[in-house]
Write a structure and sequence with these properties.
20% of the residues lie in helices and 27% in strands. The two termini are 29 Å apart.
Length: 166
């Protein structure tokens, strides 16, 4: 991925590479593992997490509809993940002041993508692998390879925010 520090709020881009899908319960487990000194199911450093819970995959498809979920539900977990090296998050909606401060402090970036367009977004997914927390069903952690996945920089590494200032 292009250097995070070069992205600016409001910038559109098409991302190709690896993103990890994780929602609330997976975030809770990741944070618990960090606090207990356990190994994580994927390397957080320089990774991107997509807040998404894909629908059931139809026959002949790679993944079901995979639109973003509300990011604020992950806010309590996000500062610690950023401290551990997470560089990007993808979701929808504004973030808490604590998350905005952590993004600036740890030089991360928060992207948004098109809400209500999960079927369209699934077309950018080239491969899917379930890698952790299988018991969570649609909230298990997935590793996605995406191509030209549409993103908008909502909060940049300098604290610029598409939603305005707090």
């Amino acid at each position: 991925m292009k250097e995070i520090n070069t992205f600016r709020v409001g910038q559109d881009l098409l991302f190709s590479g690896i993103i990890y899908v994780a929602r609330d319960q997976a975030h809770k487990r990741l944070v618990e593992a960090i606090k207990k000194g356990r190994r994580l199911p994927f390397e957080l450093k320089n990774s991107i997490i997509y807040y998404c819970g894909p629908t059931q995959t139809a026959q002949g498809k790679i993944i079901g509809a995979c639109g973003p979920t509300t990011s604020a539900r992950m806010d309590e977990f996000t500062p610690l993940l950023l401290k551990q090296g997470l560089k990007g998050m993808i979701g929808k909606g504004n973030r808490s002041l604590d998350v905005k401060k952590a993004i600036r402090k740890y030089k991360g970036v928060y992207f948004i993508t098109y809400a209500g367009c999960g079927a369209l977004l699934s077309k950018y997914v080239k491969s899917v692998k379930k890698i952790a927390y299988h018991d969570l069903g649609p909230e298990a952690i997935l590793k996605l390879e995406v191509e030209n996945f549409p993103l908008i920089v909502a909060i940049d590494a300098y604290g610029g925010c598409i939603y305005g200032e707090d």
